Amino acid sequence: MTGREAGGGRREAKGNTSRLPPLAFHLPSGGVTVPHVAAGSEARSGTACALALAVLLMCVLGGCAARATRTMEVTAYCGCSECAEWERGSWKYLKLDFWHRYVSKGPRKGEVYTGETASGSKPHEPRPGLVSIDSLTHPWMIPIRLVFPWLWFPRDGTVAADTRYYRFGTKMYVPGYGPGVVEDRGGAIKGPDRIDVFFDSHSDALEWGRRHVAVEIER
Predict the structure, then answer these.
(1) Are 181 and 160 in contact (CB under 8 A)?
(2) DSSP, res 103
(3) Contact at 8 Å (CB) between 113 and 103?
(4) Are residues 130 and 178 in the same domain?
(5) What's the rounded Cα separation, in Å, for the pair 138 and 128?
(6) Which one of 33, 102, 166, 186 is at 20 to 30 Å from 80 when CA atoms are compared?
(7) pLDDT digits (tens, 9 = 90+) for 45-97
(8) What is the pTM (predicted TM-score) of this model?
(9) CA dihedral in degrees (179, 182, 183, 188; nearest 10)?
(10) Domain that holds residue 194
């Protein structure tokens, strides 16, 4: 800043001292600009904005919905013929149509097996997404998630539950499994304390076994 510009600034500040707004800038003789903030409504407004921002962050990171915790018996299943109860080919065609899959048990026995859940969706495991704690604990997964765009976004896993207690779309968090959403039913899944979680492989489902864990349920 030149001496002329500094001097002009000082003259303007002195000439308008009586009409200074609450937030003003005074230029002392040394030529350094020092902000002068008046206490009052501006301070209260800043505090309110900070509180609103904190509440917004809590809603985004922790979720605004109320959650209840319930100890449940959690088993696992996959899409194999043993877990999903289907078989290849129909005896109607002497099993020659082995590329088709049919329901092998229950009231729908003999019908074509589609692989869909009771709600009409395709079952899947939870997916953490690119920006996640899992990417920090498993950094070798970051290049893979960068290559395949569908791995960028998180996705809840499929949970089978008794829909008399938990309707389709109910979100849950199962420790050791991750976030899930109720999308399926099961013949052995009865009552409010029993759920089944989906895995892509039969070996992972067997490894899970049968566990009793504290499940968080979004209400």
Answers:
(1) no
(2) E
(3) yes
(4) yes
(5) 11
(6) 166
(7) 655 555 555 555 445 444 556 789 999 999 999 999 999 999 999 888 888 88
(8) 0.64
(9) 120
(10) 66-80+118-218
C-alpha to C-alpha distance for 32 and 129, rounded to whole angstroms: 50
Predicted confidence (pLDDT) per residue in 34-53, tens digit: 444 444 555 556 555 555 55
Tokens 């509180």 sit on residue: 51
Domain count, the chain: 2
Half-sphere exposure for 172 (CA within 13 Å, toward CB): 32
Q: Which of 205, 203, 154 is nearest to 180 (CA)?
A: 154
In a domain, 99, yes or no: no
Asked if residue 169 is part of any domain, the answer here is: yes
Amino acid, single-letter form, for residue 135: S
Burial of 119 (0-12, 13-18, 19+ CB in 10 A): middle
C-alpha to C-alpha distance for 198 and 205, rounded to whole angstroms: 8
| 152, 199: one domain | yes
Number of neighbours of residue 14 by Cβ within 10 angstroms: 10
210: Cβ contacts below 8 Å, ≥ 6 apart: 73, 74, 75
Q: How many CB atoms lie within 10 A of CB 171?
A: 18
The H or E element containing residue 206 is: helix 202-208
Give the Cβ contact number of residue 81 at 10 Å: 14
- CA–CA dist 187, 209 (Å, integer): 18
DSSP characters for 130-179?
SSSHHHHH-GGGHHHHHHSGGGSS-BPEEEEE-TTTS-TT-EEEETTTEE
